[in-house]
């Protein structure tokens, strides 16, 4: 059974940092393109950052220079380092793994508020 489990979400003040983790089981994560998405109430789910199986990365304009996606294939885990957080970053963050099949995690809540 394939599982993606996100963790690391929390309540943080503006300007703070968080690191999200997406741990996979049941698949060889290195074969998959992995993306972090987020969704806030009333808005569509949007792609925040992605990393290909080869390690190429891309980011939404809104997070460029603040967020960094990385992967540790030995640990079957992808990370999202989020710095200089803003209130508009508040959302549920989801991990997505895509190859011939596609899988989603259950999400982790990130709240940026003073």
H/E order of the elements? EEEEEEEEEEE
pLDDT under 50 segments (min length 5)?
A: none
Shape: globular
Please, how many helices?
Answer: 0
Mean pLDDT metric:
96
From the N-terminal CA to the C-terminal CA, the straight-line distance is 40 Å
Strand content: over 45%
Largest sheet: 7 strands, mixed
- Structural class computed from helices and strand pairing: mainly beta
Helical residues, percent: under 10%
The number of E-state strands comes to: 11
Rg from alpha-carbon coordinates: 13 Å
Could you characterize what this model shows?
The chain is mainly beta and 114 residues long. The chain contains no helices and eleven strands. The protein has strands at 3-7, 11-12, 18-25, 33-39, 46-51, 57-59, 67-72, 77-82, 91-98, 102-104, 108-112. Strands 2, 4, 5, 6, 9, 10 and 11 form a seven-stranded mixed β-sheet that branches. A four-stranded antiparallel β-sheet has the order 1-3-8-7, with no helix packed on it. The termini are far apart. The model has no long low-confidence stretch (mean pLDDT 96).
């Amino acid at each position: 059974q394939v599982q993606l489990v996100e963790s690391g979400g929390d309540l943080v003040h503006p300007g703070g940092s968080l690191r999200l983790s997406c741990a996979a089981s049941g698949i060889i994560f290195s074969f998959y393109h992995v993306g972090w998405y987020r969704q806030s109430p009333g808005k569509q789910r949007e792609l925040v950052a992605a990393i290909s199986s080869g390690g190429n990365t891309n980011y939404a304009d809104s997070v460029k220079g603040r967020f960094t996606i990385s992967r540790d294939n030995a640990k079957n885990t992808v990370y999202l380092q989020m710095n200089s957080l803003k209130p508009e970053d508040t959302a549920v963050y989801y991990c997505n793994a895509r190859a011939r099949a596609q899988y989603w995690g259950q999400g982790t809540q990130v709240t940026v508020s003073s």
